[in-house]
UniProtKB/TrEMBL annotation:
It comes from the Bacteria. Gene3D superfamilies: Collagenase (Catalytic Domain), Glucose-regulated metallo-peptidase M90, N-terminal domain. This is Zinc-dependent peptidase. InterPro entries: MetalloPept_cat_dom_sf, MtfA_fam, MtfA_N.
Amino acid sequence: MLPFLSLIVIAVLLIGYIVAKPSWREYQRDKVRKLPFKKGWRVIIQQRMPYFRQMPADLQLQLKQHIQVFLAEKKFVGCNGVEITDEIKITVAAQACLLLLNRKTDYYPKLHTILIYPSAFIKEQQSMHAGGVLHHQRVTLAGESWDSGTVVLSWQDTIDGADIPDDGHNVVIHEFAHQLDQEKGSANGAPILGKDQNYKDWSDVFSSQYELLRKQKKSGIPSLFDYYGATNPAEFFAVTSEVFFEQAHKFHQHYPMLYQQLKLYYKVDPIYW
Ligand SMILES: [Zn+2]
């Protein structure tokens, strides 16, 4: 009888824990969101994100509250001599949280650590070529997003991406778009969509525009999107996300259907910033 009762008690406690955990976490986050936002942090955002001033007041407030939660939950680690400063943390957090506005978010739930390198870093890559030949390669990267919960960024490339806010290149937006894509497993260019979107529309529009970029790359025809987006659908989603936030006008003008899908997904319209 006693072991049976113990089992019931354990089951009740376990269910209670499962039910209470998300609301407890939400309660904690709400407390963090209400903390005063340091003046120095606001100055960093204005320097590193010039369009912040143009954003509607409610989005500015949301962004600042998201940054507080992001900083409370994610760990920054400096690599190769980088010392983590407020400038690094705020610059990265502000751009990462730009992708979370206007929707229910769990703040990149898989992500726990952001590694910061001083500049582009070298990575050894292996790939299998025809005939089963294993090919070793050293590649230089500005950023990387791992689905095991880490984002790696070059600080130099992060600053370069932020300094020119309308060139369509932003390594932080790129890597955090991958994190969104990786929430449901490996990145494949189809993140979890909201209730007001459907996967067929997303897939139809993204597939045709991805194929177009592949053809343009092959024939050397210039595109608003970096040819790197033609690597695979996951890269296409990350590259188009960079352009969505940084060159909204041109994007909307040349690719209205693709723009519409990203507008529905990100729930903001950067044309007005
Ligand atoms: Zn990428």
